[in-house]
Each structure stands twice: as structure tokens, then as C-alpha cells.
């Protein structure tokens, strides 16, 4: 069963959704014996982030999105509490808000080597829990090496912008599909799931996609 | 990607499930912590 996921490593609901999806997929596989294959696609949540932006999530939302600091802090507190329920330790106090285009390029490189899933997980943890600044080539290459990619090749891929076109293609496809928010899941090219839904929703969507198509005249 | 997904999709689940869009990730009201229930600052 193939699932295409649009998400961003700077998207807190995507990390939470990843946990919930994984649980739904685990239940589906347990019940049906069928494996679930996930392919991540790039979605830049805040493409207006300057490449050299230095600051926290609060700084970005207050100064670039015009939100009040009180509203931002309340939002982030609610997000952290929800993340904690999923076993995730978000640290917004140390998070470095980042333009994520380069991280998406690296995820394409990892996909070409069959390592997209471990890199996605590593980048999310680095961003939300470890406060790493994921815009620098050296930092990204270090993380690529941690999941088994060649460090020098990963750095070269980023320096040469080898996957820029692939990232732009992902984002253009998201636009054509009408995806305006993430995470967004497309299951077997037929079923859409928007947002960090509970695990049972993902299990249900996978189960519906796996069911044999109804034949005309089946009813009655 | 081979075989790009094509809309329309049959949507499954709650239309109001939380998403991030345009750089902002709203938290649904029922998930907002009550005063004094949020994580310790810093």
C-alpha cells in the first residue's frame, strides 16, 4: 500500500501526525499482513522565511506573521502538550526557525538511497527537540551521515542544488492537488487524509483503500 | 514520483483536524491548555 505524504520538517503537526500515522499503519499491517510504503514530498510551510533568518518560532510568528506574543506562546504551549502525549519532547524555547528548502533537497537525496524515512525522523528530532539549525550544509551533512548517507556526497548534493527541481516539482504538485496545509496524506492515489488525525482514521483509510472495489450490482 | 496522485480524492476523517498552513499551526480550542496547565516556561 503506497502512501504519499506532503509535510515539512518545520511542521509540528507533521511530527505528531507521523506518530499517529505510524500507529494506524501498524494496526493495518497487523490486521491485514500488508506492508505500507511511505514517500515524503516537500512542502515549505513558511517559504517566506529568509535563508539567513536567525531567531525562534516566537520571533518569526510575531515579527513575520504579525501574531501577538501572547497568542503565539499559548499556541506553542498547546502544541507542546499535544506532542508530549505522543511521546515527543518539543523544545520551542531552543528551536531555531529555519527555511527548510535545503532540508527538503536532502530528503530527496535520501529517497534516492532508500533512506528517506530515517532521515525524515532524524531531521524532525533535530528541529523540534535538539534545537539544531537545519539550514547549514555542514549541519545537514552531519545528520545525513548519521543515517547512513555518505557525508561528502550529501554536502555536494546540497552545494550543487542537485534536487532543487525535485523539491519545486513536489510543491507544484501540492498546489495542483489543492493541498494548502500539512500534513496531507494520499493513500493509494484515491483517499485523502488532511491533518494530524487520530491513528484510527489512518487505519480506516488504509483499510478502505485495501478493500476490493465494489462491483456494480453488488448491493441487495 | 511514478503515477502522481490525482484529485479528487475521497477524503477520510475530520475536516477540522489540525494542520499547519502559511507558516502558522493553530491548535484546536479543546487542546489549548487551561491557565496554569501549560508546560513550565523555558
Keywords:
heterodimer, A: 220 residues, alpha+beta, Glutaredoxin, four-stranded mixed sheet, 9 helices, 52% helix, globular, B: 42 residues, mainly beta, 3 strands, 0% helix, 14% strand, disordered C terminus
CATH superfamily of chain A: Glutaredoxin
Oligomeric state of shown chains = heterodimer
Question: Which outline of chain A best applies?
Answer: globular
Number of helices of chain B: 0
Residue share in helix of chain B: under 10%
Poorly predicted spans of chain B:
35-42
- Indicate the CATH architecture of chain A: 3-Layer(aba) Sandwich
Radius of gyration of chain B: 17 Å
Secondary structure layout plus pairing:
The complex is a heterodimer of chains A (220) and B (42).
Chain A (H helix, E strand, L loop, with lengths): L1 E6 L4 H21 L4 E6 L14 H7 L5 H17 L15 H12 L3 H13 L8 H10 L4 H9 L4 H13 L7 E4 L3 E4 L4 H12 L10
Parallel strand pairs in A: 1-2
Antiparallel strand pairs in A: 1-3, 3-4
Chain B lengths: L9 E2 L8 E2 L2 E2 L17
Antiparallel strand pairs in B: 2-3
Can you walk through the features of this model?
The complex is a heterodimer of chains A (220) and B (42). Chain A contains 9 helices and 4 strands. Chain A has helices at residues 12-32, 57-63, 69-85, 101-112, 116-128, 137-146, 151-159, 164-176, 199-210, and strands at residues 2-7, 37-42, 184-187, 191-194. In chain A, 52% of the residues lie in helices and 9% in strands. Chain A has a single domain, classed as Glutaredoxin (3-Layer(aba) Sandwich). The radius of gyration of chain A is 18 Å and the shape is globular. With 220 residues, chain A is of the alpha+beta class. Chain A has a 4-stranded mixed beta sheet. Chain A binds chain B through residues 4, 8, 11-14, 39, 41, 45-46, 48-49, 60-61, 64-65, 67, 74-75, 77-82, 84, 93, 173, 177-178, 180-184, 186-187, 189-198, 201, 204-205, 208, and chain B through 1, 3-7, 9-27, 31-33, 37-39, 41-42.
